[in-house]
Amino acid sequence: MKFSPKNRLITAILFIVSLLLLLTPIAAAQEAPVPPEVAAGSAVMINADTGQVLYSLNPDEPRAMASTTKMMTALLVMENCKDLNARVTASQRAAEVGEASIFLQAGESLTVREMLNGMLIQSGNDAATALAEYQGGTVEAFAGMMNKKAAELGMTNTHFTNPHGLDDPGHYTTATDFARLGRELMKYPEIREIVKRSEYTIPWPGQPWPRSLVNHNHMLDVYPFINGIKTGYTDAAGQCIVISASENGVNLIISYLGGPSLGQRDADVVNLARFGFASYTQKTVIARGAEYASAEVPFYYNKQLPLVAAEDLNRTCYVKDSVEKKVVLPDELQLPVHKGDKIGLIEVYENGKYLGSSYLLAAEDISEPGMGERVTYYVQSAFGFLLSAVKPG
Fold it and tell me: What number of other Cβ atoms are within 10 A of residue 325's Cβ?
């Protein structure tokens, strides 16, 4: 029987689908790594694709977050601004906000895109304020938008009072909440392009040279696997960073709050990223030629047809996870069968996530039964039925 997608649908309707859940884990290629010591006040690392938590330290402890705040400002701009080339005019309030700055002057105009670069690369508080006023009308109204969005994302231990992150008693978050925010922000290609830049230039109206923006995340130039997102520091917050890191198909988000020093922050984040990458391994979850099931052969008493996988399937899997297999077979084998015919399907799942599948092929030929095989089959079946009927019970 040829097992095309059409036949699979027919099988699902006309036959009883056999789902064999093989719960024994496929052997891991390596042992689970030991998490590193981390000096942060709190930290969380998640898989950026699945949201799975890989590491946590005081994950729900409220803390100041400094300029990592600007991730939420950027997210709201990306969600609500229809034209990144629209012009934003800096107000007096934006020009005077202080601390980290791209030196905006009141009345100066840049595009939304240029302001985003100034805010996320140079960490300009003035750019963050200008974007907040552009998007929300006032800083206070924009803070309300920030809190509403936080609630929508399930950031239950976060509260914003400003778009830039300067210290305020009512301005706080947790490592869990900001890992979730970082994951959401990195869904935007434009943001991914901005936050991976170590340096960039944007216009500087009235000056003979452009503005040079320098990213405070200097790990971008040292570790190829780090590709974003945002740093932050104030006296109250300590050293903060939310980073994105990718290697060998594994994508991580690390939220790190309250580090004691810049050097310690960077060392901790790199060690966490390496631990995260080591938490995954390449597994052959389906091996070509391996037998995964058998099908009962009609008219051949007690005969089973071995079914083998048509191809290898290799996937990156979490080392602590088991891999489940589902075998889909027709209720009745259609004869004759030729070696290599598609008879069924094997599907592989990790924690309910579909990893892939392979056809199951007949491992040998089975000919059309002749009259002798059919008579023998019926006689043996009848004899077996009689034996079971008279067996004491």
Answer: 20
Q: Which residues are catalytic?
A: 67, 70, 123
Q: What CATH superfamily classification does 42-278 receive?
A: DD-peptidase/beta-lactamase superfamily (3.40.710.10)
- CA of 99: how far to CAs of 119, 126, 176, 345, 368, in Å? 12, 9, 27, 61, 84
Contacts of 323 (CB under 8 A, 6+ apart): 25, 26, 283, 285, 317, 348, 349, 350, 355
Q: Residue ranges of the domains in the chain? A: 5-28+284-390, 42-278
Contact 104, 96 (CB under 8 A): no
CA distance 119 to 125: 7
CATH assignment of 5-28+284-390? 2.60.410.10
pLDDT tens-digit profile of 231-277? 999 999 999 999 999 999 999 999 999 999 999 999 999 999 999 99
pLDDT < 70 positions in the chain = 1-30, 370, 372-393
Amino acid at 157: N
